[in-house]
Prior knowledge:
Shape: elongated
Structural class: mainly alpha
Number of strands: 0
Number of helices: 9
Radius of gyration: 20 Å
Largest sheet: none
Oligomer: single chain
Order of helices and strands: HHHHHHHHH
Amino acid sequence: MKISYAFSCGRVETLFKLSNYLKFGEKNNVNQEEEVVKQYRNSVFSGKSFEETDLYRQIENEENTVIKNRLSSVFRENKGSVTDPFLTKDYTNGVWHELNDYKLAVRFFKAKELINSKHITKTGMQMTVRDIAALTGWNQGNIKTILNHKRSAVPTMVTTLEKLAEEY
């Protein structure tokens, strides 16, 4: 199966990075990861098929179902075109955002757990969304809308929650 580099290659590379981040977290060896990606690019440019590369084999052997599903959808989706600039840039919007979203979700979860554990020791009760909204000044009805439509607001919300968790 020959798939254009412009559309799929960047998404497969990012999927590999997401896979490593899920496996190793912050202890991920970035240098080794970049070396595998560089070998992958050289192999693809020299005419090898995706299935013959080390990076592809590592992703294919991944046990995480999210990674396997994304890999199959990368190859199932539009194959892309080197001449169409929109499709050339499209891969950066796919799996790359999933990696960033996952990192933000991990930060959010850690901050939420920290603030919740501190609240339990103080009051003996779980902290609710209303409590967090009251402490941060966010309108709880707008939080979901902001998360879905204003992506630039999400990192600041997570940062605010982390600061609140530290100070609480």
